[in-house]
């Protein structure tokens, strides 16, 4: 039964995919992005709490993956896979890093495990259906499949043991959206636990600890329990497609990815609206963006990062999005325009989601003239990718924010892994 399960077929698909130099080079860039996010996350209140707690606990790969997973997801600028609505980097990279360092693996083995982990997470996430996302945070619920897959690769587990690992990781899937009602720190915990769960499940599987082989398709499994409109066939669809990691988007701005298409459109209109009085702004987007980011009057920095109204208003006012765009001064500066920003569903944009995340922005001037800008892909998507130089610049900025003493040396070491370089040692407990 286990050999024929959907999980077993997924593992077989992943292990049969060829890995070329382009895939490894792209993996190194996404690892750079993930590590830079974790380094920057050290310099935050939730980051300091996570570091303090980790320092008190017994060390181990599970605790390291927990810490790095949580740190990576704090600033809301880590990567995003559109079709699965998963942030794979904050789960897979920490798990792979922790196990690879413990096991003495090479940089290439680490990158290959990251590719495998992204593949598992994103394929499962692409199959859960939109109803799942309305209640469950996909990064938390689908992430454990990826962290377990990456750890299993590095432990060189055979098929049966890997199925055990994914079965037990998936059995611990969780991550409810309720935290959004009070904008607590819970979202960071989602990434931390999803990374840790996979490492623990793989370690136990290596010792013979068994797990449910039909965790995905079983009558009391993942899809039946948590996914009312699941499409299980998507787990194994298009096996010869590029690696899911190569289809993952990179965020240029540190806020919820659902706001990015509208931000991109607003930045494009900024120059045309200088010195012009704006009467009204309408953002048309897809339903999931409205479910998560319809926050007309954010009162905290974290709420502002999940506010379409604020993101669009501050982009139109300032013509940029940076570390300061969600702080009290920026919220006050954008308040007047934010009150005139309305959000609504757009049928065309909704039809393209989740394969494409888009927005239509309409700005009505006081004289009645209307300007419109449409985006079906945001900067950083595979359709509109950041250059390698832009990704390196982003990593440098994040590392400086995290008080990394020599960002350029760490950047070079991470990118060198695709050419056979070792896995760099990083102090994620560094005081900031």
Quickly describe the structure.
This protein is α+β, with helices and mostly antiparallel strands and 432 residues long.
Key descriptive features of the protein:
single chain, 432 residues, alpha+beta, 4-stranded mixed sheet, 19 helices, 53% helix, globular
Beta percentage is 5-15%
- Terminal CA distance: 51 Å
Q: How many β-strands, per DSSP? A: 4
Average per-residue pLDDT, rounded, comes to 96
Query: Which spans of ≥5 residues are poorly predicted at pLDDT below 50?
Result: none
Structural class, from helix and strand content?
A: alpha+beta
Seen as an oligomer or otherwise, the chain set is single chain
Widest beta sheet: strand line-up: 2-1-3-4
Order of helices and strands: HHHHHHHHHHHHEHHHHEHEEHH
Biggest beta sheet attributes:
4 strands, mixed
- Helix count? 19
Task: Tell me the helix content.
Answer: 40-55%
Radius of gyration: 21 Å
Described by the principal axes of the CA atoms, the overall outline is globular
What does this structure look like?
The chain has 432 residues and is of the alpha+beta class. The chain contains 19 helices and four strands. The chain has helices spanning 6-16, 21-41, 45-56, 61-72, 89-103, 107-127, 130-135, 138-154, 159-170, 186-206, 222-226, 260-270, 287-293, 301-305, 308-318, 328-338, 347-352, 388-401, 407-416, and strands at 278-285, 341-345, 359-365, 370-375. It has a four-stranded mixed β-sheet. A hairpin with a 4-residue loop joins strand 3 and strand 4. Helix 2 crosses helix 5 (89-103), helix 5 (89-103) crosses helix 10 (186-206) and helix 15 (308-318) crosses helix 16 (328-338). The mean pLDDT is 96.
């Amino acid at each position: 039964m286990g050999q024929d399960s959907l999980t077993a077929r997924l593992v077989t698909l992943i292990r049969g995919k060829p890995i070329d130099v382009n895939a490894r080079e792209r993996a190194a860039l996404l690892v750079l992005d993930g590590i830079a996010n974790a380094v920057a996350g050290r310099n935050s209140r939730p980051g300091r709490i996570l570091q303090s707690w980790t320092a008190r606990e017994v060390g181990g790969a599970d605790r390291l993956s927990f810490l790095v997973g949580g740190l990576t997801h704090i600033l809301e600028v880590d990567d995003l896979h559109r079709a699965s609505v998963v942030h794979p980097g904050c789960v897979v990279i920490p798990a792979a890093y922790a196990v690879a360092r413990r096991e003495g693996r090479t940089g290439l083995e680490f990158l290959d495990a990251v590719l495998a982990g992204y593949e598992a997470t994103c394929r499962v996430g692409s199959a859960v259906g939109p109803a799942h996302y309305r209640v469950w945070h996909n990064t938390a619920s689908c992430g454990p499949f990826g962290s377990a897959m990456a750890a299993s690769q590095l432990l060189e587990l055979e098929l049966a043991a890997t199925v055990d690992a994914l079965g037990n990781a998936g059995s611990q899937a969780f991550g409810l959206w309720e935290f959004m009602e009070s904008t607590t720190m819970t979202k960071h915990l989602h990434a931390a636990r999803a990374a840790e769960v996979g490492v623990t499940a793989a370690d136990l599987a290596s010792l013979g600890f068994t797990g449910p082989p039909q965790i995905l398709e079983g009558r009391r499994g993942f899809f039946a329990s948590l996914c009312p409109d699941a499409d299980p066939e998507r787990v194994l669809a298009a096996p010869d497609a590029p690696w899911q990691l190569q289809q993952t988007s990179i965020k240029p701005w540190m806020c919820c990815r659902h706001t990015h298409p509208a931000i991109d459109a607003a930045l494009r209109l900024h120059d045309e609206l200088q010195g012009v009085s704006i009467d009204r702004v309408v953002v048309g987007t897809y339903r999931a963006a409205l479910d998560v980011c319809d926050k007309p009057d954010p009162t905290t920095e974290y709420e502002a990062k999940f506010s379409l109204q604020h993101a669009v208003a501050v982009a139109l006012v300032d013509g940029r999005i940076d570390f300061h765009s969600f702080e009290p001064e920026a919220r006050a500066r954008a308040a007047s325009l934010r009150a005139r920003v309305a959000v609504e569903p757009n049928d065309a944009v909704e039809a393209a989601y989740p394969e494409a995340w888009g927005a239509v922005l309409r700005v009505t001037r006081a004289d009645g003239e209307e300007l419109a800008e449409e985006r079906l892909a945001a900067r950083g998507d595979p359709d509109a990718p950041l250059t390698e130089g832009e990704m390196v610049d982003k990593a440098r900025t994040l590392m400086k924010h995290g008080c990394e003493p020599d960002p350029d040396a760490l950047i070079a070491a991470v990118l060198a892994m695709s050419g056979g370089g070792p896995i760099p040692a990083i102090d994620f407990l560094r005081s900031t």
